[in-house]
Amino acid sequence: MLIFILCLLLIFLLYAFIPSYINKQKFFNKKHKNENAIYLTFDDGPSEYTEELLDLLKKYDVKASFFCVANFAKERPELIKKMQEEGHYIALHSLRHKNFMLQGVGQTKRDLEDSIKIMKELGVDIKYYRAPWGDTNFYLLQALKKKGLQLIYWHVMAEDWEGNTTKDVICQKLLSRTKGGDIICLHDGRGENEAPFRTIQALKMALPLFLEKGYEFKTIDEYEI
């Protein structure tokens, strides 16, 4: 029994944990470029909060990148159209927001292919991909390379999904943690206690302050990997 458990652990380490960890560290350890551009990205949407977020971004003429969950996008095609019309960049954040470290080859393959198909039907040609929680597995990494998709992580998070945080705390984290060249990861869906609402309120404070500091917001397709 012990040998069986050890074998399962070894398989998990080789298939999921080690490939996921190595790829994260490669991205996180890259030196920041000396520039005033920052890259605002949103995961886990679209949701009932996304339209208000888009209106806020439009107010400040800020362009962002949305890593959409395909099944959520399928339910709200009007928001995908609005993103496109207002100049935002749309990327992919899986089919159903399941952790790939816990998915086998067959599940991973279906998730990737079905999500790309849905986004294509919505008029989106996927070039960039972010896995839920940033967790991948060996098959997913190989499949993304084969399909020519670029895996994207982040440099800054503000823990905006937490149920006990506040708009002021999120805003403070964004302002104190962000440097030129950083990719910021926030969320326009899911989270605890109406988390995306607090994120929007935090951005109402943070966006004008970033702009006052001279930062320019760019979309993820302009980021140099």
Question: Explain this structure to me?
Answer:
With 225 residues, this protein is α/β, with parallel strands linked by helices. The chain has one domain: Glycoside hydrolase/deacetylase (TIM Barrel, Alpha-Beta Barrel), CATH 3.20.20.370. 48% of the residues lie in helices and 13% in strands. Strands 1, 2, 3, 6, 7 and 8 form a 6-stranded parallel beta sheet that branches. Strands 4-5 form a two-stranded parallel sheet. 40% of the residues are buried. The mean pLDDT is 93.
List the helices and strands and how they pair.
Layout: H1 2-28, E1 37-43, H2 50-59, E2 65-68, H3 70-75, H4 77-85, E3 89-92, H5 105-121, E4 128-129, H6 138-146, E5 150-151, E6 156-157, H7 167-177, E7 183-187, H8 195-212, E8 216-218
Parallel strand pairs: 1-2, 1-7, 1-8, 2-3, 4-5, 6-7
Keywords:
globular; two-stranded parallel sheet; alpha/beta; 8 helices; TIM Barrel; 8 strands; 225 residues
Structure in a nutshell:
This protein has eight helices and eight strands, in the order αβαβααβαβαββαβαβ. By secondary structure, the chain is of the alpha/beta class.
